[in-house]
Design goal:
It holds the Pfam family DUF1622. It comes from Planotetraspora silvatica. This is DUF1622 domain-containing protein. The structure is a single chain. By secondary structure, the chain is mainly alpha-helical. It has one domain. It contains five helices and no strands. α1 packs antiparallel against α2 and α2 runs antiparallel to α3.
Length: about 140
C-alpha cells in the first residue's frame, strides 16, 4: 500500500471521527439539557444546550480541520489545494471564534481580563485582607 493511500485512510478516519463527535455530542448535549431543564427550568436547559453543543461544535471543527490538513499536506500538496485549505481554515477559525463568543457571552480578549491570573490575584488579595475586605462582607 502506497503512502498516499495510507494517508487517505488516515484523513478519512479523522473525518469519520469528527462526524462521530458531532453526532454523539448532539445526543449528549440534548440529554444534559433535558436533565437541567427538568431540574432548573427551560431557560437554564436552553443555555446548557447552547454551551454543551457549542463546545462539541468547536471540537468537531478542530478534528475536521486536522483531516483537511492531513489530506492537503500528504495527498495533494498543490498550490490550489493549499489555497483551498487556507480558505477552509479561515472560515472554520471565524466559525470557532463566533461559537466561542456565543458560548462564553464575551469576546476572548474580554474574558482574559476576568479569568486566570486576575481571578487568582483578586482571590489572594481578598483572603489576605481578611473577611472584612471581601465583597460579600457587610460593613
Amino acid at each position: 500500500m502506497a503512502f498516499t493511500d495510507v494517508m487517505k485512510h488516515v484523513a478519512q478516519s479523522f473525518e469519520a471521527f469528527g462526524v462521530g463527535v458531532l453526532i454523539l455530542g448532539l445526543v449528549w448535549s440534548v440529554i444534559v439539557a433535558a436533565r437541567i431543564w427538568r431540574a432548573a427550568g427551560g431557560r437554564r436547559g436552553y443555555q446548557a444546550l447552547r454551551e454543551t453543543f457549542g463546545g462539541v461544535l468547536l471540537l468537531g471543527v478542530e478534528i475536521l480541520v486536522a483531516a483537511d490538513l492531513i489530506r492537503t499536506v500528504t495527498i495533494s500538496p498543490t498550490l490550489q489545494s493549499v489555497t483551498v485549505l487556507g480558505l477552509i481554515v479561515l472560515i472554520r477559525t471565524f466559525l470557532s471564534f463566533s461559537l466561542q463568543i456565543e458560548i462564553d457571552g464575551v469576546p476572548p480578549w474580554r474574558r482574559a481580563l476576568t479569568s486566570g491570573a486576575t481571578v487568582v490575584a483578586q482571590a489572594a488579595r481578598t483572603h489576605r485582607a481578611g473577611p472584612s475586605a471581601s465583597p460579600d462582607a457587610e460593613g
